[in-house]
Recover the amino acids of this structure.
């Protein structure tokens, strides 16, 4: 089934490798190599030097990371820059949306990551260190933090399609911090041991807490009923929060009247172009990604690498083949329908250009779709006209995209349209 989602107009070896890369994105090592060659190449571009230091002192945004390698034994720790002050911007993704990719990577990788081993399948209360991190995450403003490491800081960058770039790291020996005022909304759900995690996530979202904050406290095992709290790797927590909030919103919009027109929106950032097509009727959703030659997941082929996945009115019961970007885009779309108190469906197309040469995290998709849906849209009475407008900003060939689409093909068949582009 997954192979049907991937487009190739060539049978040569390099084209096949592009398809593997787009499906894998450095997470499954489908190429058989011990590490992802694309991420090794791009991370070497971005190495930082922390000259022979074994300690760091600065203001954590606050920010914490939970690794996934070796699960359930994972590495957890604070992220601290080598400077003090208001560093909250380092964890505000909407702040970076209009930045250049080089500037963003340079600034966020100034955060030095402490690493301490814990078992994710054990209650957080088993570790005093985790409880200290809970204190950090409860803070309403940056926290002055001093970290000592076992040996020198390792000057290496961690890149991923799902999470933000992470900077140098070290194995943590001791951490001291100056307590800050607690965020009352987070504090309330943290101490409510009878509240389910999904309900706590929704409460924090309704109280306008950032998704970064919600993902972080969920990842640290700070939400949920007393005996079910567990540490969750940061990568997994991001998708879990996007998925949980989307399900709440999906249930809400079922009672709203449908939009009565096709709407087309656009936005772009860091070499990514987002085309959003909203369609009348009940909830249906498709997310399609196009990576052109020279972009991060298409370094070999002349042809664009294309992948997509979709769902119908009842959502989906299996994990999307293209990973976290699918869920980030879906959440942003449902958020818009809830805001305008209307229902409908959506086809989201993300096009990555050669200037998107290293991954910055799934946030770029969420914020890209959010930004598009905040802009003025063009309305159309027919799908045909809406598609012409959408593809006027897309470099990829329409028929190549259509091959990888399920929802779009279904809509065109239903309307018996011949789309000429």
């Amino acid at each position: 089934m997954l192979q049907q989602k991937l487009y190739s107009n060539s049978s040569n070896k390099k084209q096949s490798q592009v398809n593997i890369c787009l499906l894998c994105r450095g997470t499954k090592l489908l190429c058989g190599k011990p590490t992802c060659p694309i991420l090794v190449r791009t991370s070497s571009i971005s190495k930082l030097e922390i000259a022979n230091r074994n300690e760091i002192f600065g203001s954590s945004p606050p920010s914490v990371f939970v690794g996934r390698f070796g699960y359930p034994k994972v590495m957890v720790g604070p992220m601290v820059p080598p400077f003090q002050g208001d560093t909250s911007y380092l964890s505000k993704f909407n702040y970076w949306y209009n930045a250049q990719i080089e500037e963003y990577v340079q600034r966020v990788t100034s955060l030095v990551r402490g690493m301490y081993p814990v078992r994710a399948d054990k209650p957080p209360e088993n570790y005093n260190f985790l409880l200290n991190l809970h204190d950090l995450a409860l803070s309403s403003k940056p926290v002055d933090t001093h970290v000592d490491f076992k040996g020198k800081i390792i000057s290496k960058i961690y890149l991923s399609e799902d999470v933000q770039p992470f900077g140098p790291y070290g194995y943590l020996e001791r951490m001291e911090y100056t307590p800050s005022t607690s965020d009352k909304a987070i504090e309330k759900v943290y101490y409510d041991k009878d509240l389910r995690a999904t309900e706590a996530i929704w409460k924090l979202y309704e109280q306008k807490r950032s998704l970064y904050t919600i993902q972080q406290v969920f990842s640290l095992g700070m939400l949920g009923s007393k005996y079910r709290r567990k540490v969750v790797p940061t990568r997994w927590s991001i998708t879990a929060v996007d998925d949980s909030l989307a399900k709440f919103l999906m249930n809400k919009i079922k009672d709203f009247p449908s939009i009565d027109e096709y709407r087309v929106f656009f936005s772009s950032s860091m070499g990514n172009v987002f085309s959003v097509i909203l369609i009348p009727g009940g909830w249906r959703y498709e997310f399609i990604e196009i990576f052109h030659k020279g972009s991060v997941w298409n370094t070999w082929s002349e042809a664009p690498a294309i992948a997509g996945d979709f769902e119908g009115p009842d959502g989906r019961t299996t994990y999307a083949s293209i990973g976290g970007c699918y869920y980030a885009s879906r959440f942003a779309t449902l958020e818009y329908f809830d805001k305008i108190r209307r229902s409908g469906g959506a086809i989201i197309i993300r096009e990555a250009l050669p200037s998107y040469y290293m991954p910055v995290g799934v946030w770029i998709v969420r914020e890209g779709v959010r930004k598009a849906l905040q802009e003025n849209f063009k309305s159309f009475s027919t799908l045909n006209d809406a598609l012409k407008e959408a593809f006027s900003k897309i470099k990829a060939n329409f028929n190549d995209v259509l091959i990888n689409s399920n929802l779009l093909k279904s809509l065109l068949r239903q309307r018996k349209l011949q789309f000429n582009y």
